[in-house]
Design brief:
By secondary structure, the chain is an alpha+beta fold. The chain contains 9 helices and 12 strands.
Length: about 280
């Protein structure tokens, strides 16, 4: 089949369309987490070169002329916890979850810009056994193998362990209930990658508001909560407690979100925490 070469302005129009898609997926992700797969596929279109095909950013020469927004927490060689550079862990009395950082920064954040190759290949997730994913690794696994543009019969081992086997070992605990893995690191991280690209390439982009879900606390998933998180004392744990209801509070809906009355749900109060297995 014959082909007609696109004009430069037509390729620029394609870039604007892809960035609009990216912005939509980032803004709607909290409502539909599965959009992370479509988001990864759009990032692949923008960023990934193959032997026979050039990405949009290569065609427009952005890779060599542009510095890319870089937002991860700093990873220390002395750190004793799994590293999740682009996300927070958030916590309430019902669950814990990973969420993109968007524009939130701390003193322990690498807020800078990088040349494309450095940005694309920087490690953003590392588990306690040394498995790791760069931005490139994560995007291509999600887009090419895990349902973005194709479903493969096999996934890369590091990606599989991190996304399916919960090898980061972060778990949510509520009173004496069975611990529950904190999941979705791959989805939240790829959303943050999309955010970085939009900050770099799209004029008048505004990051979405963080989740409005009732929240007790948040921390960077790279070490001991509440401190500069580089190789501090174990255990890596964030805890919140609440006393049991008294007086008229006992007949009100329970603060844990169950919908039951407090006196029948958490009459003695409750304690929740998240923790992870240390390295070494």
């Amino acid at each position: 089949m014959s082909k007609t070469k696109l004009k430069p302005e037509e390729i620029e129009d394609q870039l604007n369309k892809q960035l609009n898609l990216l912005s939509h997926y980032v803004s709607e992700y909290q409502k539909v987490p599965e959009l992370a797969l479509a988001l990864a596929t759009t990032i692949r279109v923008l960023c990934h070169d193959t032997k026979n095909q050039k990405s949009l950013l290569s065609q427009l020469k952005f890779k060599t002329s542009t510095h890319f927004k870089n937002t991860p927490f700093l990873e220390s060689s002395d750190n004793k916890a799994p590293f999740c550079g682009l996300v927070y862990i958030r916590l309430n009395f019902d669950r814990a979850w990973f969420e993109p950082k968007f524009n939130e920064t701390t003193q322990s954040t690498e807020s800078s810009s990088l040349h494309f190759d450095d940005w694309w290949n920087t490690v953003i997730i590392r588990d306690y056994e040394g498995r790791y994913l760069s931005r490139k690794d994560l995007v291509l696994e999600m887009a090419d193998r895990d349902g973005g543009a194709h479903v493969d019969k096999a996934l890369g081992e590091d990606y599989y362990c991190i996304s399916r086997k919960h090898s980061l070992t972060w778990t949510f605990h509520k009173d004496n209930n069975k611990p529950v893995p904190v999941t979705g690191i791959e989805q939240a991280s790829v959303v943050q990658i999309g955010h970085e690209l939009l900050c770099t390439l799209k004029d008048a982009y505004h990051a979405p508001e963080l989740s409005k879900e009732a929240m007790l606390g948040e921390f960077s998933a790279i070490g001991q909560p509440g401190k500069e998180m580089f190789g501090k004392a174990l255990p890596f744990r964030m805890e919140q407690s609440r006393k049991g209801p008294s007086g008229t509070e006992r007949n009100l809906p329970c603060y844990c979100g169950s919908g039951k009355k407090s006196k029948k749900c958490c009459p003695n109060g409750t304690t929740v925490y998240v923790t992870t297995k240390p390295i070494g």
